[in-house]
Structures are given as C-alpha cells and as structure tokens.
Design a protein that fits this description.
The structure holds three protein chains of three kinds.
Chain A: H1 17-39, H2 42-64, H3 69-73, H4 77-88, H5 95-110, H6 123-134, H7 136-139, H8 155-164, H9 173-176, H10 188-197, H11 202-205, H12 220-238, H13 245-264, H14 272-277, H15 281-288, H16 299-319, H17 326-343, H18 359-363
Chain B: H1 2-31, H2 39-46, H3 60-68, H4 80-91, E1 109-113, H5 123-127, E2 133-134, E3 142-143, E4 163-167, H6 184-187
Antiparallel strand pairs in B: 1-4, 2-3
Helix pairs in contact in B: 2-3
Chain C: H1 5-13, E1 39-40, E2 46-50, E3 60-61, E4 68-69, E5 76-77, E6 92-100, E7 110-117, H2 137-146, H3 159-162, E8 171-176, H4 185-208, E9 212-218, H5 222-231, E10 238-243, H6 252-260, E11 275-279, H7 280-291, E12 298-304, E13 312-317, H8 322-328, E14 342-343, E15 350-351, E16 365-367, H9 387-391, H10 398-406, H11 410-415, H12 426-430, H13 437-495, H14 501-524, H15 532-540, H16 548-556, H17 558-586, H18 591-618, H19 628-633, H20 635-638, H21 641-656, H22 661-689, H23 694-698, H24 701-713, H25 719-743
Parallel strand pairs in C: 1-13, 8-9, 8-11, 9-10, 12-16
Antiparallel strand pairs in C: 2-7, 3-5, 4-6, 6-7, 12-13, 14-15, 14-16
Helix pairs in contact in C: 4-5, 4-7, 10-13, 13-14, 17-18, 17-22, 17-25, 18-24, 18-25, 21-22, 22-25, 24-25
The complex binds iron/sulfur cluster (4 copies).
Chain lengths: 364, 188, 744
C-alpha cells in the first residue's frame, strides 16, 4: 500500500487558468454586444473566424510540439486572444485579414516564444500592429455606426461582405462606408485628426454627426461600446481577475495628459473625455494592457506600466501617424516590462531596502 | 560671419557631447568594473576538488590550467554535468556531455577503512590527495569522512584491500525534496 | 525603531491592529473537529519515540534495549544547551533502539527508541517546582529543559533557549492563532485549559519579564478568546488580541507584524526586535512541567478530514504511530484513491510515508482528506498573472522565484530573496495554473544548501590539497638535501681513506652527523615513517658497511612484521575465498572448471591456514636473520614464470641487506603480490581474447607444483617465505577465479 506523497499546500483555490480566461471572455460580452449593435454582424463574424483560426492553430502547433493540446486548449487563452484581435478589426474587413492576424498571434507571437506564459508581447496587439502595417487599407475601413449609415446591412450582408467584399445587394465596401451625409465615414479619432490637420478647430469638428451624442465630443458608437467594456472591466476588477493598478494608472495618465494639453489650447487638443471614450482606450485599459503574461507583475511596476501606456497613447494620438495607439503603446511597454519588474521589486519582509544584494553577499 | 559662427557652434556642440559621453563611459568603467580572478583560479573554483585525476591531470588545479589553455571542459567525472555547465558558462562555449573516456558520474562516495583489518601500512595516507586519512605506521588508520573527497585513490594502494567506497547516505538535512524517488521499500 | 513601545500600546488600546500584505482565505473547516472535547486514547502497544524531535542536537541515549522504563523517565540526556531530552511516554520495556521512519517529509529513518507498553502507565517520581517564583531562574529553565519542552507550534526550537534572552523583552506574544484550516488543537486546548495556559504564561513572565503579554487569537475562535479572557482577567498586563482571520496570520513573523508592526530582520530572530513568541501548547507544557513536574510526553492532536468518520482532538502520547490515532477515529481509506495522510495542516503539512510514522512534539494535526478535499496535481504554464505575488505575506515575487528555481538559476533565485520565503503555500494556493510553487522553492533551497556545503567542502579540499603539495615539495627538497649530505660525507671518507685514525674518526663523525641530519629531516617532514623500505634502502645502501647499528632495531620489530604479513596473508586468503565463492555462484562454465577452481582455492586456504598456525607457534622464536635470504630465493622455480622473474630480482635484493631481512621480505611479499595481481589481470585480459583456453589455463600444472614443494618445506621454512608463497598462491587463486569469471 503506497501512500500518496505530495508537497504542500495540499489545498487549492478553485479557480484555474481556464476559469480566469473564461471570466475575461464573459466580461467582454457587453462590449461585444454593443459593438455588434452599432456596427452590425461583422463583428460577430470576425470573432467567429478568429476563434476558429486560433483554436485550430493552437491545436496544430501544440500537436507539432508534442504537447497535450487538449489541456492547453482548455485554458481558453487562445480564444481570448482571438476575441481581442477580432474586436479590434474593422467589422467588414476581408476574412483573410483576421485569419492571418490570428494565425500570426497564436503561432508566431505566442507559440514560437514558448507558448502561454512565455510570450513577451501581447499576441492580439502584436497581430493587430502587423495587420495595420501590412494591410493599412483593409485595417482602416471602419463602417459608420448603423444609425448613421446610408445603407443598412444584415447578417447575410455582413457575411458576404467579409468573404467577397460586397453585400448581398451588391454594395461595395466603399458604399457601405458611406454615411447619411454622403461622406465616407471615418472613426471619430480619424475625423478629428484629419479635420484638425485641415485647419478646423476641435470644437468645429465635433459638430459633425458622428459626434452626435449626449456628451459633446463623444462618438455615439464608441462611447457606448466603451461603456460596455467598462462594465466588463469593473466586473473583472470585482472578481479580482485583474488588479486596479494598470487600468487606473493608464486612464489617469491619459486623462492628465489630455487635460494639460487641452488647457494649453482647447482648439487644437481634444478634451480628456474625448480621449478616454473614443477608440479602444477602455477595452485597452481593462482587457489588453492587463494581459497578465506580457504586463508587469509588481504593483508598483503595474502603475508605471499603465501610466506609460497612457502617455504613449497620448503622444502617438497627438503627434504620431496613427489615430489610435493602444496597440503600439502596449507593445512598446511590453518590451520594457523586464526592466520595470526588475526595478520595482517590492520590499521583502525583514529587508530594509529593495536593493539588490550584491553577488558576494548572496553567496555568503 | 554667420558661417563661422555655425561652424563654431557645431564644433562646440560636438566637443561638449564628446566630453559628456566620455565622462559617462569613464564613470561607468570605474563604477561597474568587474573584479575578476585570473581565469585559472575561476576554473579551479568550479572544479569539484576531488583531486582524483580522472581527468588525466594530477589534480584539479592542473586541469584548470589545461582548460584555460584550451583543453576540453568535459573530462571531470566527479563534477558531472553541473560542472560542465558552469565551465561552459565561464568559458563561453557550448556545454557538452561528459567524456565517458574519463569515467562516468557516480553517486557521491566516501572511503571507509575496515579498521580491524587495517595493518597500518600508511600506503593510503600517501595516496590521499587531501590528507583525509589519519593514522601512523602500524596503527589502525581511519578516514576523516568530512574531509574525504571520494577520489578513490586510496583503494588501490591498500595491500589488504580494507578500504571500501561507500555511497554517502542521504540525511534529512541533505534531502532534496525528491518526493517521487522515495523508494518503495521504505514505504511498505 | 519606528514602532516604539508606547505607540504600539496606544494603538492596541484603541483595539487597532496592523495588517500584513497578501494572505489568503482558504475554507476553514474547523468545525469538523472542534465540536467535541479533547478525547483520550488508549495506550498503544508500541511507541516509537524519535530521538531528535527539535531543532538542535540530539541527546545521548541513556537507556538500553530490554531495560524497563517508567512513564516520564528520561531516555536521553546531554550537556549541550541545544539538546532537549526525550521521555518515555508510558511505562514499559525498551524493545529496540534503531532507525524508524520519521515524521519528516522525507520519511528517512531516524534513530528511535521503541517502547512496548506494559499498559500500567506507571509514573516515575515527579518533582514539581511549585514555588518557582522563589527559585533562581536557572533552576526554572533547567526544569523546562529537563521536561523536554521544545516549541510545539512550528519548527521545535528548544524552549529554554528562547526563554533566556540576553536583551530586554518588550512583548511576549502567545500564539493562539492557528490559522491553518482544519486544525483545532490549540483552539480546544485554550477552551478547556485556559487556566493552565495562563499559569504557563506566568512562568514565562517570571523568566522573561516582558513589558506586555499579547495573546493573539484569530477571531474565528470566540470561545477560545472568551476562555482566555476569563483566565487572564486578573493580569492587566495580559492582553488578548482578536486577530482578523487570514492565512497565514499565525506565522511568527506575520503575527509580530499584525500585533506590533515590527519586522523581524531577515536572518534575524524576533528577539532582535524585543519580542519573544511562544505557542499556547508550549505554555501548557511549561505549566505541566513546573507545577506537576510532568515532562512533555503527550500533546493534543487534531485528527480530522473527511476520510475519518470521527474527527476530533485527542490527547496523543508522543511516539504513538499515526495508525493508532487513525484507527481510533475510524479512518476509512476507501474514501481515498490512494492512502493519503497529512501530518500538519493542508497548507504546510506533509504527507506521511506510511502509517507507522510516530507523533512527535510538533505534530498538531493528522489530516486524512478525501480526494475531493485536496487538489490534484495539474500543473500548467505560469501565465504571470501574479496572483501569487498578491498573496505572498512577505512580498516576494513567487513567479520570479519559480522561474529561476525551475531553471536552476539558483543565485538569481537567491537574489529574489528565496530564503525569506516562509513556505506558507499561499502562492501555490492561489496560482491559477496550479503550479506547486512551494515545492520548487524547497528543492531550490535544499539544492542551494547542498551546493554551499559542497562549495565549502571543495574549498577545504583545495586548501588541503595545496598544503599537501607544498609539503611534498618540501619533503622532496629535504630528501635531496639528505642525499647530498650523505654523498658529501662519503666523498670525504673516500678522500680521507688511508689517512690517519683521526681522519677516520672525523669521517665517521661526519657520516653520523649526516645520518642524523637525514633522520631529523625525515622526522620533520612528518611523512609516515614507513615511507617504505625505499627510504630505508636509500638510507642504508650508502652506509652499508658502517651503519649496521642503525638497522638493528628492525630486527627487533621483525616479529611484528611477521604479524603484519600474516594479516596480509589472511586478508588475501579471505579475498581469494570470497572471490572463489563468487565465481562459484556466478560462473556457468563446465563443471570441471568449477571443481578445479574450488579445489585450488581449498588448497590455498589449507596452506595459508597452516602457515598461520605455524606462525603463531613460532611467534616467540627468535628470528635467524640469515635464513630469509636463501629461502627467499628458493621460491624462484616454483612461481609462474612471468611473476617470478621480477619478484626474484626483488627478493635477491634482500640479500644485500641481510640484517633488515624481515622487512625486505615483507616488501618482497607486497611486490610479489602486486606483480601477481597485475599478472593475473593481464592474464585475465588476454583470456578475454582467447576464450578457447580457459580449461587449460585453469589446470595449469604449475600452480599445483608450486604448492607441493611449499608444503613439504613447511616444517623448516621461514615465515616470510611462506608469506610470499601465500601471496603467490593467493594470486593464483585470484587469477584462476578471475579467469573462470571471465570465461563465463
Ligand atoms: S577529474 Fe578529478 S582531478 Fe580532474 S578536475 Fe575532476 S575532480 Fe579534479
Ligand atoms: S580517503 Fe581515499 S577516497 Fe577519500 S580523499 Fe583520501 S584518497 Fe580519496
Ligand atoms: S499565480 Fe501561478 S500563474 Fe500566476 S504568476 Fe504566480 S505562478 Fe504564475
Ligand atoms: S510560500 Fe513563500 S513565496 Fe509563497 S506566499 Fe508563502 S512566503 Fe510567499
């Protein structure tokens, strides 16, 4: 009779990686629903495509690497990555865009670095940036929110558009992109950026229909969607899946930067609220920057990490070439994580400083 | 005039930059200077000091010298893979597996003299590279277990073959938490 | 110190406490076992009292197998301050003193006194120390030490050492936290024996004179808090602190942090911040020892888990096997896929290796969980979620520690303060990837410890090696010097040959001096005197004619040399026999070969034993110094050609120094033996290549013929002669055996 031998602790909290990931996926649902509401079925189709690609890729690679792929798939991390990528992609982007992107995220960014836990970069964001750089046209074809679009579209339209580039009735993507005022629609961020460069002031710009919402300066769709993700994010906070540090510091940093600049010149620099609720800031703060694998792991480090992302976002938005900047900011800070972690180690109990012990001391 | 001024500024700026970077570099060189032993010493500190000569040199230090002069790093069986890995790190070369021509890695052993059979010939004393054997002519000899490196060199010279190499016993304090290797017979 | 005494008291007065970072909230499950009073157990038939149950040194055993012992009788004692004695938990007989599985995660057997109970439970005479207040402290401490009390909560630090601090004590903290799930032994003890615990605290106060006593109890034990409050009512200096329930609040460092906000420095002791901590169980044991003189021979153990049907707290005798406690609580192993018994709690306890493991002084719980209560091992990759870092009570970064421990980057792990980890298990408890983090740390820690030890050892070895090298060089120099002096002396003597007597005397003097110097040098260099005959020959050869007297002592020791040789011969014979025996077992050659070998060996044995016999008879015979030479020469034709030729030359060499004959003969024997050995090996090797000839070789007639003459000569032959022959014969036997072996 052989007794069981294991190392303590013998008990374990009932929440495994799969559960954590599922919680995150669950928390995305309100945002996704709102996104679908505003941008049509395209989002759902993209998510479906991405998830299938991700799971297939992950299984295939794990099989190649001779790992237990069933168990690894159960951690849902691939699904989560796929979803994050899918919601960042324009809903009517051609199908191969999302497939390539997801494959890149799972295969190159994640598995080639050693799989879950070893990737340096956030897979979804790395893939997003790759797509943005490689296929700038497809990646910037955002549709107008449904209520502003000239032509409405249904699920079949969306499906067709994704796979053929034309809706069922034969409207091209360009047509679908046309808003009710007959102008091709761009995202609020794009709009502001272009009109500012054309010499309009910020306050003139936000008179346009796309900003026709209760709070001036907010794009209708993006503010609602942001709200959806905010709810999910708060739920994650409450569930202790994520810590408050990264979202808070990131939003605060962006807020403060925008505040200072808009105080300097409110005609040229959009308000803080505009920055926070347009584009993918909220989903970025709660779902993307908090990706545990590629974020900083110490509390102090997380604050620095978050704040730096906020600042980078602002810098890129205002002076960089891209209207939205979450992906770039996150990737840049991913690179800095080891450094941040190293210099923000918490003070261990009984030690007077966090200073690294010298080598000799450690050996003595 | 303006041209001369521009050139002057440029020169000044470059000079200033050079000065700044130079002093940073200089400072770094002083501040982060690595105090290092001569290579041979460093190698010698990695070798297990069993002094058994299995590497083909009359002790660890000579082998350390040989490595420093370019010999292979995989000739020391007592050190085994761990030592080879460290040597590889130090020398900046690929770690390879132990050269089996020199022996294989074995469990750690110490010599034990069956004292009632010892005739006090002192031959083992002369063989022992670390003076781990205590005794005088025609007196019973004994091994100072703590000092014995397990080099095996005393076994052959003994005319009455009363030296055994016994594996070092695991004790609770040296136990390495290898739960899965607890032998079944202890369990039963 | 930022947290001075008055600030702390002020905060405590306001019923405020501090907090420690991290921590987890595992399901408590204490109600399983804390509903019923502490039960009694029948005395087990056999008790296994481990000799070393605490941190420190083990005492010397003072009982023998077969001895009758009374309950409470000391089994060990020691003068070492870090030794704590053990006592017989009941009366009975010492059945054995041997290694027995230990209450340690490794289960490695440790020295254990096994006692068979006589079921009478008869106490030894007890010496209480009721008037302890009027006794000198040292006497109270001695009483505590003699009662065998060591910390009963954690690691088992000897209590008397903890109770004799060199500095002033601000706080005496009594740890009644018991933060681990399931365990309720301290809880029940406080509820039922609060009074006695208070008495123990009184004794400690007498010894330590603390400014304040803080009794920390987790707020999930209201009954215990109340009981202690009632018991301590009269002492305004005793303060019961209800500590918020959070694991691991009961860790020594964590409790100190919660109650006083002080931090024990890394590698320091609580005493460094003016704090001493004792466990409630220890207080109870102290009061038992002081007021009734009873040593620590039993303790409260929680037996719980869903695989036992009657979970409860029990008074268990130290040394009771786990099986005894389990049987009493109706353990049902069928509820587990594999028997699984944990000693200690689910967070920090360890699996026992089998149910014969005894209860020791630190055993507070025996947990038999069902499979659903414990986690299965389902390790996945770390996702760097740092849930572990958030849970760590000492603010480590477990994920980094894990990373480096797993990669065996031990110095990096140390950089991340691996050794500050208290192994509380909070990190592994929360890890979503179910990584057994603590296990990795333990492995890394023990590896670091072993590595450091090895490093120390190798440093020492290097030092010794280098010293030896230096000494050998010095010796070499000394010897060269000696030769030079001797040569000079001889030269002088040569030159002065034919000169007058005065010169001769001078020459002789010079020689003597040189000799003396040489001897001195030799002694100085402290090489073992028997740097073998080489040296003697060297020393003797140049002075052959003049220095006869110097070698005379050797004649005297001749007989002892003979003994030595006899020993060699014996050893050889033994070995030969052993070898033959093995060959008998292993060899699967044709039976003739086997027989042949056996016969031969027998013959050898006969011969050797005879030689030994004759030797013992002749021990007192005076040795004729001239004899050895011819006899030593005689073996020549008898030996196998290859071995003999060389050895003969050696043997003939003995003629040159007839006076030191016996010594030389010994050398010859050794050399002959070595030769024979080598020869045998060689032969064996060649044997490998030519497998067809084993029989012929084994039947080598020479082997036999060599024996016959030896036997016939035996009556008059000299001892050394026989030894040589014996060595040769032995070599033969070995050779034969080896051959037989190889050919198989
Ligand atoms: S083989 Fe022996 S002598 Fe050579 S380096 Fe290793 S331990 Fe030293
Ligand atoms: S005692 Fe023997 S095995 Fe040990 S170090 Fe000395 S020679 Fe080597
Ligand atoms: S809790 Fe586990 S998975 Fe999370 S960082 Fe720590 S070790 Fe990694
Ligand atoms: S086991 Fe060590 S690292 Fe883990 S939580 Fe406890 S103290 Fe921290």
């Amino acid at each position: 009779m052989k007794f069981r031998l294991a190392s303590s602790p013998h008990q374990h909290i009932r929440r495994d990686t799969g559960q954590v990931m599922r919680l995150v996926i669950l928390a995305m649902i309100p945002g996704v629903l709102l996104q679908t509401w505003f941008f049509g079925w395209g989002t759902v189709i993209q998510i479906g495509l991405a998830v299938v690609t991700a799971v297939v890729t992950e299984a295939a690679i794990l099989e190649l690497r001779k790992r237990d792929f069933e168990r690894a798939l159960k951690d849902y991390s691939a699904v989560l990555t796929a979803m994050l990528l899918a919601v960042s992609i324009p809903p009517f982007a051609p199908w191969w865009v999302v497939v390539i992107g997801t494959f890149f995220a799972i295969c190159i960014v994640k598995q080639l670095y050693g799989g879950l836990g070893f990737n340096v970069f956030n897979p979804a964001m790395a893939a997003y940036v790759m797509l943005l750089v490689s296929f700038p046209v497809q990646m910037t074809q955002w549709l107008p929110p449904v209520n502003l679009a000239q032509y409405s579209h249904n699920f079949m339209d969306a499906l067709q558009a994704v796979f053929t580039g034309f809706s069922v009735e034969g409207f091209s993507l360009a047509q679908l992109k046309t808003g009710i005022d007959g102008v091709t629609m761009a995202t609020p961020l794009d709009t502001v950026k272009t009109s500012l460069s054309q010499g309009f002031t910020y306050s003139e710009t936000i008179e346009r229909p796309i900003f026709d919402s209760v709070i001036p300066g907010l794009g209708v769709a993006s503010s609602w969607i942001s709200l959806g993700y905010l709810i999910g994010g708060l739920y994650l906070l409450k569930q202790k899946v994520i810590n408050w540090h990264i979202p808070t510091s990131m939003l605060a940093a962006l807020f403060i930067c925008a505040l200072i600049m808009s105080l300097v010149d409110s005609d040229l620099y959009p308000s803080s609220i505009f920055h926070l609720f347009n584009g993918s800031i909220i989903i970025g703060a709660f779902f993307i920057a908090t990706d545990p694998v590629s974020a900083s792991t110490t509390n102090k480090g997380r604050i620095i990490f978050g704040a730096a992302i906020g600042i980078w976002v602002y810098l890129i938005r205002e002076w960089g070439g891209y209207p939205d900047a979450i992906a770039f900011a996150v990737l840049i800070m991913n690179m800095a994580v080891p450094l941040i972690d190293y210099y923000t180690r918490p003070r261990t109990y009984g030690h007077t400083s966090t200073k690294r012990k010298t080598k000799n001391k450690a050996q003595s | 005039m303006s041209l001369g001024f521009a050139i002057l500024t440029a020169l000044l700026a470059i000079g200033l930059l050079a000065l700044i970077f130079g002093s940073i570099l200089g400072f770094a060189a002083v501040k982060f200077k690595v105090e290092s032993d001569p290579l041979v010493e460093q190698i010698d500190h990695i070798l297990p000091q069993t002094q058994c000569g299995q590497c083909g040199y009359p002790g660890c230090k000579p082998y350390a010298q040989a490595i420093a002069d370019g010999d292979e790093i995989n000739k020391c069986p007592p050190g085994g893979d761990a030592t080879i890995k460290k040597l590889a790190d130090l020398m900046g070369v690929e770690a390879k597996s132990l050269d089996s021509a020199h022996g294989t890695e074995d469990v750690k052993k110490v010599a034990f003299i069956r004292e009632d059979e010892c005739i006090g010939c002192t031959k083992c004393i002369q063989a022992c590279p670390v003076d781990a054997i205590l005794g005088a002519a025609k007196q019973m000899h004994t091994v100072i277990t703590d000092e014995c490196t397990g080099c095996d060199l005393c076994v052959d010279p003994c005319p009455v073959d009363c030296i055994d190499m016994l594996p070092v016993k695991d004790s609770a304090s040296s136990w390495r938490w290898d739960i899965n290797t607890i032998p079944i017979k202890q369990v039963g | 110190m930022p947290n001075n005494y008055d600030d702390i008291i002020e905060k405590l007065d306001n019923n405020q406490l501090w907090d420690f970072p991290g921590g987890v909230f595992p399901a408590e499950r204490k109600t399983l076992s804390n509903q019923t009073p502490i039960g009694k157990l029948p005395i087990p038939e056999r008790l296994f009292v481990t000799v070393k149950q605490h941190i420190g040194v083990e005492g010397h055993l003072i009982v023998e197998v077969g001895q009758k012992v009374l309950k409470g009788q000391a089994l060990t004692k020691s003068m070492n301050p870090f030794a704590v004695p053990i006592h017989a938990p009941t009366s009975g007989e010492v059945a054995a003193i041997q290694k027995h599985v230990s209450a340690h995660p490794s289960g490695l057997p440790e020295m254990t006194v096994e006692i068979i109970s006589d079921q009478q439970d008869k106490w030894i005479q007890l010496n209480p120390l009721i008037d302890y207040q009027s006794q000198p402290k040292i006497k109270v401490l001695a009483a505590i030490c003699d009662a065998g009390i060591s910390g009963m909560g954690g690691a088992g630090f000897p209590t008397h050492i903890k109770s004799s601090p060199k500095k002033d004590v601000d706080f005496l903290i009594i740890n009644g936290i018991e933060c681990e799930p399931y365990i309720t032994s301290d809880d029940r003890l406080m509820r039922e024996h609060a009074w006695q615990i208070r008495q123990g605290i009184d004794v400690l106060c007498h010894l330590l004179k603390p400014k304040q006593v803080l009794i920390g109890i987790e707020n999930n034990k209201p009954e215990a808090i109340e009981a202690m409050q009632v018991a301590c009512r009269e002492n305004p200096n005793y303060r019961i602190c209800s500590v918020p329930t959070k694991y691991p609040a009961g860790g020594e460092k964590q409790l100190i942090q919660v109650l006083t906000n002080r931090e024990v420095p890394a590698k320091g002791l609580p005493m460094d911040v003016g704090i001493i901590m004792h466990n409630v169980g220890t207080c109870f044991a102290i009061s038992d020892a002081v007021f009734s003189g009873k040593p620590l021979i039993s303790r409260v153990v929680t037996v719980t888990g869903e695989a036992v049907e009657k979970p409860s707290n029990l008074w268990a005798l130290i040394g009771s096997p786990v099986a005894h406690l389990l049987a009493h609580s109706d353990y049902n192993p069928k509820l587990q896929k594999q028997p699984n018994v944990i000693m200690g709690g689910p967070m920090m306890g360890f699996n026992v290796i089998n149910d014969k493991v005894p209860v020791i002084k630190t055993t507070n719980c025996i947990l038999a969980p069902t499979d659903t209560e414990i986690s299965s091992n389902n390790e996945q990759a770390c996702i760097r979620c740092s849930a572990c870092a958030d849970a760590c009570p000492v603010s480590l970064l477990p994920q980094q520690l894990f990373w480096h421990s797993k990669a065996k980057e031990l110095d990096k792990a140390q950089d991340y303060n691996l050794f500050d980890c208290i192994e509380c298990g909070a990190c592994a408890y929360v890890c979503p990837s179910e990584i057994p983090l603590v296990h990795y740390y333990r492995i890394a820690k023990s590896e670091i410890r072993v590595e450091q030890e090895e490093k120390q050892k190798s440093d020492k070895a290097r030092e010794r090696f280098e010293k030896r090298e230096a000494r050998l060089i010095a010796e070499q120099h000394a010897r060269d010097e000696k030769h030079r002096l001797a040569a000079e002396a001889r030269k002088q003597a040569m030159e002065s040959k034919g000169n007058n007597a005065k010169d001769k005397i001078a020459a002789a003097l010079a020689r003597a001096k040189a000799k003396k110097q040489a001897v001195n040098i030799e002694e100085e260099t402290s090489v073992s005197k028997a740097d073998l005959a080489n040296d003697v020959i060297e020393a003797a050869a140049p002075n052959e004619t003049t220095e006869a007297s110097a070698t005379q002592p050797t004649t005297k020791v001749a007989s002892s040399n003979q003994r030595v040789q006899a020993a060699i011969a014996r050893a050889k014979a033994k070995k030969a026999a052993a070898e033959a025996a093995t060959s008998n077992v292993e060899v699967e050659v044709p039976s003739e070969v086997e027989v042949e070998v056996e016969v031969e060996v027998e013959k050898n044995n006969d011969k050797v034993s005879e030689s030994i016999k004759t030797e013992t008879q002749s021990k007192n015979q005076s040795v004729n110094a001239k004899e050895p030479a011819p006899h030593a020469a005689k073996p020549e034709p008898l030996k196998p050609e290859s071995a003999s030729s060389e050895s003969v030359s050696e043997v003939t060499a003995t003629k040159t120094a007839t006076i030191a004959a016996s010594k030389k003969a010994r050398i010859a024997a050794a050399v002959a033996k070595a030769k024979a050995k080598r020869e045998a090996q060689k032969a064996a090797e060649t044997e490998q290549t030519s497998k067809e000839a084993p029989l012929a070789e084994v039947e080598d007639p020479k082997t036999d013929s060599s024996q016959e003459p030896v036997k016939t000569q035996e009556q008059q032959i000299d001892m050394k002669k026989r030894k040589i022959a014996a060595a040769v014969a032995k070599a033969k036997a070995k050779k034969a055996a080896e051959k037989a072996d190889k050919s198989s």
